[in-house]
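U., I forgot to send this yesterday:
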Amino acid sequence: MEGPCRSLVVVLVAIGFLSVCCSVDGGPDTNLIYKRCNKEEDVDETYFKFCLKPVIDNLSAQTADHGYNCYANSHIGNVPCYGHTVCNGGISHDDCLSCLNKAIDDIDSEGCEWDIGVQIQLVDCRVRFEKYEFYE
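Result:
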């Protein structure tokens, strides 16, 4: 077998090999890289959680639509809450949302549920919430 037929066979074998060896599962990589909880306690955690909800909702809705990098804040009375979310720019809109939802769900499951600040880095996204303003 020579010429174009041989080249076609080589290409087909290579494509088959790559599809078996290098398949991608199609979703974001949500493996935990690190988690940091802010254990500071000079703010009532209940108010902070109440303040945090609109920030989480805003960031969840906006990050994938605004360059995969978004900041938001909220104030309830004298309790401020600031947040930042970012996704890997190489993942899809839906994968960004999926990754952020997993990271936000991990706030409670990773032992930071009543803390006044948290940073969670997954492979394809990151979330951070604090009682003070910050920029990254």
